[in-house]
């Protein structure tokens, strides 16, 4: 099992508006100890860990980019919204950021499509593939264009 042994934020100075990288000590299933991140693309027994700490200056809630947490989100992936994936993974700071992250981001959609959701009665409620990906294949530019929505001034996406 992947276990967190120790965490430490290497600063006693109150800092706002910049990203800090905390010190995290992990024990892997083979009992080895590491301070390295466990990337989402190479999980250990299905678990991954990437740590970043960001303290923002203002207290109003704004959506932040899932790739660049120091940036305010300006768009959201609609495929994630339709698939009811965690909102935090669906925000991006620019179309370029979204395009650069698309290869890894579309894996979230594939996992959502592969793992059927259940309602309270145990019935399958997973959206159909056509609903998740539009009319084109998952990597098509048509599906990508349809999946982006602008967020005015970084505000959260309004519920459909």
TrEMBL record:
<dbReference type="InterPro" id="IPR031615">
    <property type="entry name" value="Zfn-C6H2"/>
</dbReference>
<protein>
    <submittedName>
        <fullName>DNAse I-like superfamily protein</fullName>
    </submittedName>
</protein>
<feature type="region of interest" description="Disordered">
    <location>
        <begin position="112"/>
        <end position="160"/>
    </location>
</feature>
<dbReference type="Pfam" id="PF15801">
    <property type="entry name" value="zf-C6H2"/>
</dbReference>
<feature type="domain" description="C6H2-type">
    <location>
        <begin position="72"/>
        <end position="110"/>
    </location>
</feature>
């Amino acid at each position: 099992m992947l276990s967190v042994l120790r965490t430490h934020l290497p600063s006693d100075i109150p800092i706002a508006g910049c990203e800090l990288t905390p010190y995290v000590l992990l024990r892997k299933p083979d009992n080895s100890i590491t301070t390295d991140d466990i990337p989402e693309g190479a999980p250990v027994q299905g678990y991954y860990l990437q740590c970043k700490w960001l303290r923002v200056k203002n207290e109003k809630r704004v959506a932040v980019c899932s790739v660049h947490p120091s940036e305010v989100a300006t768009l959201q992936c609609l495929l994630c919204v339709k698939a009811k994936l965690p909102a935090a993974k669906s925000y991006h700071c620019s179309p370029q950021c979204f395009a650069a992250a698309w290869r890894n981001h579309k894996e979230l959609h594939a996992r959502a499509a592969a793992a059927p959701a259940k309602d309270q009665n145990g019935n399958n409620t997973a959206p159909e593939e056509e609903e998740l990906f539009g009319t084109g294949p998952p990597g098509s530019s048509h599906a990508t264009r349809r999946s982006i929505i602008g967020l005015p001034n970084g505000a959260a996406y309004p519920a459909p």
